[in-house]
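Worked problem 6 (solution included).
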Amino acid sequence: MKHPFRHNRLVEIVGIVIISAIISIRPAQARLCACCVEPGARYEYPGEIYDFEFEMINNLKVYRVARLYVAAGFPDGFKGISIPAEDSLTEDYRVSVSQKGRRWSLVFKRKDGERGSLIFTLPKKAVHFGVDLSANVRRETRDPGSIYKELRFKGPVWGTGMFQGGNARATKFLMVFQGYGNACTSESDFGNWTLAITGPRASYRFYGAFVIPTHR
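Solution. The predicted structure is:
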């Protein structure tokens, strides 16, 4: 005959073990879901970029090739950069970057030998943008851990060389980091960039890519 005390004690111990297991699992699930993306997610807000995020951004390596965005009406509305020969509009620019903290200097060089630098400081705040492009009401598979996302930085810019003609007090840059990832920011999120220069004497835009990290 089973002793009632021992039986009740065994049930109590088993119950404690099960509850402890559930408690230990829940924080792990919470940590995992902190970066989860809900279907249909979309956000756009200005927010602070912390030091560890700037460190991550400075770890991004700019791919050596960039291109000038050219619309159908070129050269209408195009100013602030010495205009290349029309037959070289689609040619690649060689680009390199030097970074000192939040201060960036992007150096562009054309095949005709023209070169210039765009110098700016990434501000402490940026616009965070993200949208779930896979969201739909049909029963189709989607990657729950990936959305299209951007970091947008804006501020004053100064040009040298072929960009010198666009310098003015109100000239601004808009640097956009583009890519895919979850709700948390990671170095591997960003694969592309665009850089728009606008002002009283400037209106042009470059686009390029980042070197894909080998650990991807």
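Discussion: The chain is about 20% helix and 40% strand.
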